[in-house]
Amino acid sequence: MVNEQKNYKEEILRTLYRADGETISGVRLSETLNISRVAVWKHIKALKESGFDIESRPKGYVLLHPDDLLLPFCFKKKFQNRIFHFQELESTMDKAKFLVKNDAHHLSVVIAEKQTMGRGRLNRKWFSSKGGLWFTLILKPETPPQLSYIYNFAASLSLSRSLKRLFDVDVCVKWPNDLLLNGNKLVGLLSEMETRGDMVEFLNIGMGINVNNQPQKHEPNAISLKDVLQKSVSRKLILETFLDDFETIVHPPLQTSNCHKIIKQWKEMTSTIGSRVRVETITEVHEGLAVDVDETGALMIKDKAGKIQKIIYGDCFHT
Ligand code: BT5
Question: What is this structure's pTM?
Answer without folding.
Answer: 0.95
